């Protein structure tokens, strides 16, 4: 290997190359999002209705009103635009952190950098599960196999070999975007970004998709139904008004005003905003959402299937016990005591069976123990060279490495792996096997991960295809400790309280699995099931065993897939963690696939909906919490929207029935829409999780977010407000006040009670006194802004006349204030009445 292959580029050199060649990314298919946003807004019904109103005002010769509506058009566009931009920007931010990373050598050290910062000439280290970040020429490889189907269309893994100096196109070239299915390698980057083979054929790797969620579909349906019904009613209203008063333009205006009040065009925006911002908030809690609908499903998750190693445990291992058939030795936490000579071989061959620069914490621990405990012995063979290796496979949970010593004729083969696998490789008689199995079981029952170690010598040059063809001699067992993460027991207890089952899946020994499960606080009433059990069961039997089993051991990726499928078939909402390249199908099959940011492979992360950036079980629980928060807050926003629109609709119809002048004109409805709706989505979106939300059972998956409970609660609240407002207006007219003054008082009461509705619905569990103190800066801002605008509308004469108001006298103002208090009181009362019942269901 050349020297550059070891040193890599210097940071300065890499910077200047980055400036010269540009970032290593493909020109994204980012269409002109600005234009698309504007088009979306222009086609919004609200916008069209406003235009129609403007046209009518013009036809009526009302230049002022027409101009004012035009001004509102711009404000509406602005607000709509900024809300959608906010949702969109949160997605873009996510896309940036989710971009693949690469392990490169810079300034002689291996560092992980963003894939877009890779430059030509970089030395990149590849391992199983990575996506090759750029086109490269291999300098070194060990069983490196890549899947080039995305370039060639043929889905056959291709073996690649290092050939320094070879030209492009030979089998030493690997290409950007292809996943490494096996082995490791080191290569020099030849082309990046658009100049790579992938870039030349103009492909792009999917980033974060903006998909339609089930709730979004549901919302669209509701919006369509309500819009059609509203428009029909508006037409009837317009006709009736026109016919009764012989004023067709006025009727049209009343109809359009009504339509503006009922068409729930803000619902989809609210939804996109809640989900997008939810994902953005999650990213700040170190959980990356790759698939936005996952946020919504998280709240309904019933089963979390998690890996043991690294998710429940810290994944920092330490060699605890060495065992051979003659001796056993425990290593204390501190210090490096002398290990009995008879056990040196166990450690010696365990080290030889590991990678020298280990990625795997287990191998790192073995290497560390070897360096410490065998320091002054002849058992560390730093001058030996690696000839070949046999990686771990699904069929054989053991790996071997073949060494050449400078002064020995024979090659030395060292193997380590699951004790059963090593016993199998050594072809031991039943008596010896039983002794080893018993010792392994005993060590594993203490929660240790136990590996068997074996060695063999091989005289010939040509190595066999299978590890079985070596004559292995059993050396001993090595047991490693990997403690449970400190925050895991509490997190699992919280899951149990929240009605979420936690299931452990591991490739480890049954005893180790059960011991760790117990330490973590999983329910371990039933026995553990093994991968072999799962294979032996038919679907029916498997499904019948699932409810009692929370620990699955010696499982492999295909078993995870079957578990997910069975759990799904039993009606569970399944979140599953995985990190290996073979976990991708199970991650895809789960409702919510979860990959690990640090430990997980690129392939697993791409298949996942969520990526835990700090690999930790507790953050999965955090994600569930956020999921419940988002769905809970959405329901609150929905209730508010129903409640706020009910009086508006009622006040649009009432004048017709009562023979009153029009109560609400387009400008009033615009005021309400502009102030109340956006601030409500901000306020509700920022509401924290309800106390008690994590003690409730998960939302039933088939349950709609927008259901009868939401509707009836909103109608109750809004209906009461409507009646009070109508009473105020009737009273004001009765006592001989002008229509304008009555309208002003009624409108002020409407605005104030809308704010009251927001406040009341912010939190369904807490009492209002506690709630006023709870921090939600948006609410304070909204309150101040709304009050200021309301004051302006009432106090500034030109605006006042635009709103067809006149200044009420003190008596009337007091009536308005009393009505507002009454409205809020009514909402609060309904909240408490209804709270005990249906709304306990999250
Ligand atoms: P886990 O679910 O705990 O991550 P793995 O699937 O990684 O388990 O490993 C399953 C089993 O495979 C281990 O219990 C061990 O016996 C064996 N194994 C894993 N990694 C290695 C390795 N690097 N060398 C030898 N054996 C290994
Ligand atoms: Mg593992």
UniProtKB/TrEMBL annotation:
Its main location: membrane. It is a multi-pass membrane protein. Residues 6-62 form the Cation-transporting P-type ATPase N-terminal domain. The keyword Translocase applies. It comes from the Bacteria. The chain crosses the membrane at residues 40-60, 66-82, 222-244, 256-280, 637-657, 705-729, 741-758, 778-798. SUPFAM superfamilies: Calcium ATPase, transduction domain A, Calcium ATPase, transmembrane domain M, HAD-like, Metal cation-transporting ATPase, ATP-binding domain N. PANTHER family: CALCIUM-TRANSPORTING ATPASE. This is Ca2+-transporting ATPase. It comes from Noviherbaspirillum suwonense. The lineage of its organism: Bacteria, Pseudomonadati, Pseudomonadota, Betaproteobacteria, Burkholderiales.
